[in-house]
């Protein structure tokens, strides 16, 4: 797969406890990204954060271990493919934040194994 030099970065901010179709929402999102032929997806687990639903700080500190840590799903591809992907997932995300920003793609390589 080839990506143009000017791509876009999609970030989906959700909670670790969010689910869809019986599995964690972040897992469902990655599987959907693969089905839509996107270049790749990465899931990042935050160590601290809060969001629109609560002003409570969720943290990884032992004395206040949260079960709903922040999760960010990042996907880089063309704007058109990401916009189409967003249309297909929008109604399945009950709470969260989604951003889309320009990204300069320096290279996108696969192992030559």
Describe this structure in words.
The chain has helices at residues 25-35, 79-89, and strands at 6-15, 19-20, 23-24, 41-45, 48-49, 58-59, 70-77, 97-104. The protein has 113 residues and is an alpha+beta fold. The protein has a single domain (6-104), classed as 2-Layer Sandwich (Alpha-Beta Plaits), CATH 3.30.70.120. The radius of gyration is 15 Å and the shape is globular. It starts with 5 loop residues before the first strand and ends in a 9-residue tail after the last strand.
Q: What layout of secondary structure does this protein have?
A:
Elements: E1 6-15, E2 19-20, E3 23-24, H1 25-35, E4 41-45, E5 48-49, E6 58-59, E7 70-77, H2 79-89, E8 97-104
Antiparallel strand pairs: 1-7, 1-8, 2-3, 4-7, 5-6
Per DSSP, what share of the residues sits in E-state strands of 2 or more residues?
A: 25-35%
Which regions are unreliable across 5 or more consecutive residues at pLDDT < 50?
none
> What's the overall geometry?
globular
Q: What is the overall number of helices?
A: 2
List its traits:
113 residues, alpha+beta, Alpha-Beta Plaits, four-stranded antiparallel beta sheet, two-stranded antiparallel ribbon, 8 strands
How would you summarize this macromolecular structure in one to three sentences?
19% of the residues lie in helices and 35% in strands. With 113 residues, the chain is of the alpha+beta class.
């Amino acid at each position: 797969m080839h990506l143009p030099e000017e791509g876009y970065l999609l970030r989906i901010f959700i909670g670790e406890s969010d689910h869809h179709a019986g599995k964690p929402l972040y897992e469902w999102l990655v599987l959907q990204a693969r089905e839509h032929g996107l270049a790749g997806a990465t899931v990042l687990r935050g160590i601290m954060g809060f969001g629109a639903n609560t002003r409570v700080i969720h943290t990884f500190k032992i004395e206040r271990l949260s079960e709903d840590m922040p999760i960010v799903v990042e996907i880089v591809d063309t704007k058109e493919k990401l916009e189409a992907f967003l249309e297909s997932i929008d109604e399945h995300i009950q709470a969260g934040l989604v951003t889309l920003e320009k990204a300069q793609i320096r290279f996108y390589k696969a192992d030559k194994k």
